[in-house]
What does this fold into?
Amino acid sequence: MSSAIDRIAEWAAQAQRGVAFTGAGISTESGIPDFRGPNGFWKRNDAAKFTFQNYVADPEHRKERWRQAVEGRSFMRSDVRPNAGHTALANLERAGAIRGVITQNIDGLHQESGSTKVLELHGTAKKIGCLDCGERWPAPVILERVVAGEDDPRCTYCGGILKSATISFGQQLPEDVVEEAHRWSLDADFFLVVGSSLVVSPANGFPIVAKRRGAKLAIVNREPTDLDDIFDEVIHDDAGPTLTAIVERLEALSPRRPL
Ligand code: APR
Ligand code: ZN
It folds into this structure.
């Protein structure tokens, strides 16, 4: 009797246009909290405050965000490393089982683990930009200014408000990235979701698009999601060990796809 891991590995072995789709759950094994799991970020912070409009209008909220960033209480952390889950997805790309990763994450760990095609729907915490003139810096350059005592750092060119290059609630998603993710989903024959509660749109629409086009759908997520019943295989377990087992099975199935 083949297991769910065997079946997902078989779909990966046959896939010509596979896609991985990830959320914060793939990074918790690197020490970054997710948002809605038992120790999620929204369990300790009021999500309603974290809107783009509030960030621009309320200097005290902005100062709290900068404090969280330098105290490692947010997602702009430089001390985290990719985990086995990220590595497994990079290996699936190398094996040709997926064309790349559509991610809601902003931590840059997919790229750091070797994934070469990553669509960042919600931007990146690796850069910090000016909301007025658009100038951008690597995040550490600005975080050093906060550590040195600037509690609300401004653009050195125009004095504008600075913000991490992430997409906050109320902010427009990058159109080109969303369009590319939509094309990948329309074209997918295998769609693997890892570590997402699938509650935030439009991101949570991509698995549905792939399903409608006949793709084989699999999800690896610790907790059930409201979309579980559209998936052909559902594994409620940790991403790292589960994805590693899928890659090992894939290697046994199709040595033609050297990693
Ligand atoms: N392995 C597998 N699943 C995990 C793991 C793990 N190691 N750790 C957590 N999970 C699961 C949780 O059970 C949860 O269902 O990952 C899911 C993460 O869901 P969310 O915290 O809602 O994160 P995500 O789906 O990425 O949120 C989407 O919401 O707040 C916004 O912009 C933010 O990009 C984020 C978006
Ligand atoms: Zn500026």
Summary: The chain has ten helices and nine strands. The mean pLDDT is 95. The longest helix spans residues 239-253.
